[in-house]
Amino acid sequence: MCTQFIKSLIPLPAFFTVSPPSDEAPAVFPVDPPAHCIRCPICGGRTHRHDRKIRRFRHGYAWHIGTLWIELAVPRQRCLGCAYTFTYDYGLGLIRYSTAAYRREIVRGCHGRALSDVASEYQLPYTTVERWFYRYAPEQAKEEKAERICVDEFAFRKGHSYATSVLNADTGSVLAVARGRDEEAIKTVLAKVKGSVKVVVSDLAPAMAKAIQATFPSAGHILDRFHIIQFFTEALKRRRRYLIEAKKHHTVRFIDRCLACEPAALTEGERAYVFRWLEEDSHLCHLYQALQHIRYVFKATTPTQAGRRLSDWMKRYQFHGCRAAAKIAKSLIVRETALLETILSPLSNGIMEGTNNKIKLIKRRGYGYRNDAHLFLRIRLETG
């Protein structure tokens, strides 16, 4: 029973015989390998042992105990044919004072944490943990096939450098990342996606539409509703100057929230404020009505209903007297096919926006990354 517990605590190949630790070294487990013929890794010939040394290796970790060590007699073999001399490690991946299983366990503990915290907890040098992580972490990055994906950009340094990422809409895992946000960068990152992609969700950037059409011509393109609504909310914010001058006792956030929310989500007092502001400014009134009208369009449930409502909205605001509403209508009319798919689809880029916030936390936790590949590896490992 004791031997079975030890083997479950420190997993080893079945042919090893594990002995209980001594009182002097309670975290050191002696391990005895069986006698067997060791072949040369170069020519496959027979070898003989010319040296044997008992060494200790880190092999596991347990709470309230610390690092678990194994004590193993490591043989030094020499080939009888080619005279090649090598150290036989019994498939444990022995490097200096640790086994491959221990190094992989440390790497698994690094997920979601700073490498410095892991190094401090396990009492290891930071450079050692960093070297192990970037050696074994790529093995743990899963390759997924996706049918529905989300595409968006995130900033390395806002206003200066950006990167584009692709996310599996079903699992939330980042599939690929590439530096840049132009059409070529988007094509590069989309080409890395495996599987038959049927639906792509993105914002309204022209480069996104061109890259998606070029890479996945048969896939449906869905626009994110939040970015469509944002056209109207940003126009209302620009008109906010009038409201600040006319109603100085209202805070900016209060005005923005009242104008951006649906009327049903406001209190009676807030609706009264909004009604008064719309009466005082016709420009603001037209923008607000266009926003509520597009929300009504998004509530369509059938293709026929969606097409009719969208056509009515475009006819009403395409040549409207309110220049801001007409400009928004002209930018949406060129994406009419994608808009119809957006109205009928439940997908959005919300999961992608949440992942972008997680990417910001990864960047801050790492205090910057010298190597883009290391950051992209972190992003793939810690999402989904």
Model description:
β4 (66-79) and β5 (85-87) form a beta hairpin. The chain is α/β, with parallel strands linked by helices and 384 residues long. The model has no long low-confidence stretch (mean pLDDT 86). The chain folds into three domains: 2-140, no CATH class; 148-223 and 348-381, Nucleotidyltransferase, domain 5, CATH 3.30.420.10; 225-344, no CATH class. The protein is built from 16 helices and ten strands. α7 (225-238) packs antiparallel against α11 and α11 packs antiparallel against α12. The longest helix has 17 residues, at 282-298. The strands form two sheets. Strands 1, 2, 3, 4 and 5 form a five-stranded mixed sheet that branches. Strands 8-7-6-9-10 form a five-stranded mixed sheet, sandwiched between helices.
How are the SSEs placed, and which strands pair?
Blueprint: H1 2-9, E1 17-18, E2 28-32, E3 47-62, E4 66-79, E5 85-87, H2 100-109, H3 115-121, H4 126-140, E6 148-157, E7 161-168, E8 174-179, H5 183-191, E9 199-202, H6 206-215, E10 220-223, H7 225-238, H8 240-246, H9 252-260, H10 268-280, H11 282-298, H12 303-317, H13 323-333, H14 336-344, H15 350-365, H16 372-381
Parallel strand pairs: 2-4, 6-9, 9-10
Antiparallel strand pairs: 1-2, 3-4, 4-5, 6-7, 7-8
Helix pairs in contact: 2-4, 3-4, 5-6, 7-11, 10-11, 11-12, 12-14
